Here is the input.
Amino acid sequence: MIFFFTATGNSLYTAKQLDDEYFSIAQEIHKTNNKYTADKIGIVCPIFGHEMPQPVKDFIKNARFDTDYLYLILTYGKRHGGAAELADIEAKKYGKTFDYINVIEMVDNFLPAFDMNEETALDKKVDEHISKIKTDISQKKKMISEVTQADRDIHQMYLDRMAAMPPDAFKKIYRVTDDCIGCSICNKVCPMNCFEIKNQRAEQNSQNCVMCMACIHACPKKAIQMNMPEKNPDARYRNENIGIMEIINANCQI
Ligand SMILES: Cc1cc2nc3c(=O)[nH]c(=O)nc-3n(C[C@H](O)[C@H](O)[C@H](O)COP(=O)(O)O)c2cc1C
Here is the structure.
């Protein structure tokens, strides 16, 4: 049994390679009976600012895992910044201890920093890494992926940069352009139900936005842009093995 959170499919792809029984955290989080029983239970999610997305933290906090082996796989793009250690500390706050935490480098979907066309051209040996992780899990290996002082320093620099930003810096990170046709795909892929369609045009209510960027990557008209410089506003990403309907089924809240 494995649970995933995804915006652009990397974490869903990883989950599907690791277990045939995979469930979306964006859906599971609403269930009142949140006790899960299995020989092995896994969680796969992207990292945002080196940490687990808030809905994943909430899921780990509230769920009850009845298992011999609890594991966590964090997908990332360029710098994990000690994500394994940070997630271990976070889970322990909720009384949960992972037997195994690993990180896996995949396409970085963070548009302000990367041109998706350049990113997708890189060979990050994803399947090789997933295969190694699969072997570890089949052997119930106990391990927390190594974190160096340099990783911790990267995270601290990131925290310092965030602390220097104005409090409303991330209040409205997207804008919808006149190219919007009101198809509502943005809302269907949004795990937080942040959009409304009014007069055949999407409007973002960003209060619950976790900045996962599912909407901006999935818009078929590229009519959602970031309110900050993008490396390539024409390039968008979805994991090549994952269909749009899979993202919708995973995330849709309507
Ligand atoms: C808001 C945001 C923050 C991110 N922060 C990091 C980060 O700190 N380090 C990193 O290497 N990748 C970062 N990424 C990239 C994602 O973690 C990575 O592309 C992940 O595999 C996406 O998974 P998904 O396709 O399942 O959504 C970030 C992406 C987003 C949208």
Observations:
- Residues 6-11, 46-50, 75-81, 106-110, 211-213, 239 surround flavin mononucleotide (CB under 6 Å).
